[in-house]
Amino acid sequence: MTKNILAVHDISCVGRCSLTVALPILSHFGLETRVLPTALLSTHTGGFTGFTYLDLTDEMKQIMTAWQPLDLKFDGIYSGFMASAEQIDVLKTLIKTYKTKENLIIIDPVMADNGELYSVFDRNFVKKMGELVAYADVLTPNITEACLLTDTPYPTGLHDAALIETLLNKLHEKGAKTIVLTGVKTHEDQIGIAVSTKNHPNHSECYMAQEIKGAYHGTGDIFGSVLSAELLRGQSTLDAAKTAVDFVVSSILATPVSNDKRYGVEFEQVLASKKF
Fold first, then answer.
1. What is the spatial distance between Cα 275 and Cα 268, in angstroms, rounded to a whole number?
2. Angle, helix 143-150 to helix 123-130, in steps of 10 degrees
3. How confident is the model at residue 217 (pLDDT cuts 50, 70, 90)?
4. What are the backbone dihedrals phi and psi of residue 104, each rounded to the nearest 5 degrees, phi first?
5. What's the pTM?
6. Domain boundaries, the chain
7. Domain 4-273 belongs in CATH node 3.40.1190.20
8. Taken in order 139, 142, 143, 146, is the CA torsion positive or negative?
């Protein structure tokens, strides 16, 4: 029987990110993909101006009410961009309603990057996001988000082993079961991930790939979608993360340098070629 996954993300109508990335990737990997949109935007917010923005919190609640008589079951729930602190409570209710011993909750605490909190969020949002940590079977913060969630100063320069272990251990103390820490830079010209499980604290495993300089919108959503798909297909966390890293790198390399970076990377070419 085909497994299904519920993707809880925003819809950016133009610009490859969020649901316009998650839907094709998850479906390509053989999962029935169901959605719970958090917001509707004319474009994503990276580099575009004059975009429209519709918060769908009230609609999320109505959708969940309409689902109650359907006896739905989800093999996985994969969340990304939350439009408000209130939506985090909605997500918590969703997880409490549909969590089972068998399914997998994957939470990407989307709120910051490169040492900066996204402009649409404040410190209260960070605090609310921290409440989600214990709900995650797999938590996928980047370095900035991990620092915010653990009140750790954001580092300058490379990320040494002590910093990585500190972040992972603090997140485990907050209740995270398995962590895939992204944006890890232990060497120049390389970037990758660190994986840690609560059963084996102080023993993380890293995987590095070539760093391709530049800002590439939507690559975090590409990573999370591939990771989620591979986890539901039975891959180990480390192997799933490796596949996701390689997929992102391949997507960037498949994108012509002359492209307008605001529109994201050509992950479709990688899906078509299966070179990942």
1. 11
2. 90
3. confident
4. -125, 130
5. 0.95
6. 4-273
7. yes
8. negative
| CA-derived radius of gyration, the chain | 18
Q: Which residue has the tokens 């979608």?
A: 225
* Residues 74 and 34 sit within 8 Å (Cβ to Cβ): yes
Give the 3-state secondary structure of residue 7: strand
Structure tokens at 248: 């992102």
Q: What are the structure tokens assigned to 227, written together? A: 């990771």
**Residues 6+ positions from 238 with CB-CB distance below 8 Å:** 195, 205, 207
* pLDDT (0 to 100) of residue 276: 54
CA distance 215 to 198: 32
Of the chain, the end-to-end C-alpha distance in Å amounts to 25
Average pLDDT, the chain: 94
Count of C-beta atoms within a 10 Å radius of residue 250 = 22
